[in-house]
Specification:
Rossmann fold; five-stranded mixed β-sheet; alpha/beta; 13 helices; seven-stranded mixed β-sheet
Amino acid sequence: MRLRMLLWSTLGVVALLVVVGAVWLLSLPSASIAAVQPAIAASEAEATLAALKPPKRQRPLIAIVGVNDGTETTDYLMPYGILRRADVADVVALATRPGAVQLHPALRVEPDATTASFDAEHPEGADYVIVPAMMRDDDPDVTKWLRSQSAKGAMVIGICAGAKVVGASGLLDGKRATTHWYSLDELRQKHPTIRYVADRRYVVDQGVATTTGITASMPMMLTLIEAIAGREKAEAVARGLGLERWDARHDSGGFKFTRPFALTAIGNTLAFFNHEQLGIPLTPGMDEVSLALVADAWSRTFRSGAVTFAAKDGAVVSRDGIRILPDQVASDWPADRKLPAMADTQPARALDRTLEDIMARYGARTTDFVAMQLEYPRTQSAR
């Protein structure tokens, strides 16, 4: 009798959860609403560039900060690679503690220095501090250091959900800002004085800049390069990246939590028995921006994860000097699960090609699911 009652009560709980889950899914919109955004007014573009001008040095010093145990892959590596190849500033990748930085959802790197050693070498502070998304938004070492850098006159740039880290530091209070679409509600709830700006990939206000999703670091860095060194330099770097334009226009309405998004996340998670581990060979001189985009995208399918491999242990140095540590020591990888080395592919093309490959391997829903996470403005077949 007790066993029967237990079974019935368990079945009742399961049925309730199914009903609640179904109601929740039905409450989600069936699609996001896309709209063509007008060009950015010249006056607004000029004001943005003026606000991003180097605050201290003629050749600025730019610090990219991360925590060792969970910093977003593309937020950390894309600004580094793009700014390094532009050669208009001195760029350093930092961590809060000695040792490697484990990026999320993929890759592991050796930073150039710690925040403490940076402070010892540059007591006057950086010109710009770039803040990626981090696994913890309120890491006390990061928030304290950001406040210190801001007080020394540094422009603080929050990339994607890095806006939550900047917000936790108190630097966004009362200012205009944006962030990744998924993090927007949380940011506004925790910091109600922030004034959200829609339909802009990046927003600059009183010494702080913020961007929308992961891929927005590319146009943000090009705009920063233009502010430092002029339009011609930014255009040259953009050509090398394979990017035709990088203005601030953005379709915020095209990115939201929809029913297809939720169903794809659930379905791909439940298909754990078909999960694949895909290998990317590390080669000296590889393009770290392309590598970050490819590893990040494949690791967001919920069907696969990207790992790096090399023939021997130890860091492999990328095109622009970041030291990447292999996840596994191996001379090769099974051909059906091996991703191409990131040698000469332009980053924008590398991402487009990766999305095409995800489409071929897992279908349109998973491709759109990845693009939505990256907040990548592309034509999505099923939102």
